[in-house]
Design goal:
Blueprint (H helix, E strand, L loop, with lengths): L1 H18 L1 E10 L3 H10 L4 E4 L6 H11 L3 E7 L18 H14 L3 E8 L1 H4 L2 H11 L5 E4 L8 H6 L5 E3 L2 E2 L6 H18 L1 E6 L3 H11 L6 E3 L17 H13 L11
Parallel strand pairs: 1-2, 1-8, 1-9, 2-3, 3-4, 4-5, 5-6, 7-8
Helix pairs in contact: 2-3, 2-9, 4-6, 8-9
This protein binds zinc ion.
Zinc ion binds next to β1.
């Protein structure tokens, strides 16, 4: 009888872990608040951390997280629409391709072990197709995925990434837009509900003391049908790079030419 119960228990655990909904938690703005950040890392190796490339502690905290088993992504600063204080090398839509490439390359070398990127702020930048196209062009050399923080509804991240075969995932919930423990707790429950409904969800938070407290409590009491997962578990496999057809090439050039000013080159007199 005991043996039977034991096997039933194993079966239940197996079914539960196969069918558990996946919740990824990403904590942004790493590199400034060492104490809080170390606490967050200590909660679980499945929390993903997003490091600001020009923060004073970028290299150390990325290395520490990696050693603990946490996945690291680059929290790439992008221009917002509002007037907020900006990180060094914030990306703007009107930067040249070369400038964008320099910023991206420097960010990659400042954040060791990064496997992806998400945007810090960016309502202005991520809603601009040409701006994001330059970012994707610079990123595709580095084989990183892009997590769209979705700081604006009409984001161009997916459109811009498609030409470069860069995997894109999107945030579902911001945990701490309102910085009180009760609000953060409600947002965490919302992320759990979305995961239970869709099978997966991505929540983004910040290393605020209130967020640290809520995470400590919530992660220790996750519902049994929810699995906290590393962000890489939610990245869709890339379709094998298809050879561009003549139609694709024509479409791409048409997009470019439509943006050029009227040159009036071939007007017969
Ligand atoms: Zn941020």
């Amino acid at each position: 009888m005991i043996k039977y119960l034991f096997y039933l228990g194993i079966l239940w655990l197996t079914i539960n872990s196969v069918f558990a909904a996946k919740l990824a938690v990403v904590i942004d703005d790493f590199g400034y608040r060492q104490h809080n950040e170390e606490q967050i890392i200590s909660f679980s190796p499945n929390i993903t951390i997003a490091v600001l490339p020009h923060s004073p502690n970028a290299k150390q905290i990325a290395t520490r997280a990696h050693q603990h088993g946490n996945e690291v992504i680059i929290h790439l600063p992008m221009a917002p629409m509002g007037k907020q204080s900006l990180e060094k090398d914030t990306l703007f839509p009107d930067m040249t391709e070369a400038e964008v490439k320099r910023v991206v390359d420097e960010a990659v070398s400042s954040v060791p072990y990064a496997i992806g990127v998400n945007n810090h702020m960016g309502s202005l930048m991520t809603s601009d197709f040409d701006g994001m196209y330059k970012v994707m062009k610079a990123l595709h050399h580095h084989a990183l995925f892009f997590l769209d923080s979705k700081t604006i509804g009409k984001t161009q991240v997916k459109n811009a990434a498609s030409d470069y075969n860069i995997a894109v995932v999107e945030r579902d919930v911001f945990l701490d837009f309102q910085q009180t423990e009760s609000a953060i707790s409600q947002q965490f429950d919302l992320a759990v509900k979305i995961a239970q409904k869709n099978g997966h969800a991505i929540a983004i938070g910040h290393p605020y003391p209130e967020t640290v407290n809520v995470l400590r409590q919530k992660l220790a009491n996750l519902p049994s049908n929810i699995e906290l997962v590393k962000i890489s578990r939610l990245i869709p496999p890339l379709s094998p790079k298809h050879k561009p057809t003549l139609k694709d090439i024509f479409k791409k050039f048409k997009k470019r030419f439509e943006k050029l000013p009227n040159l009036n080159l071939v007007k017969p007199q």
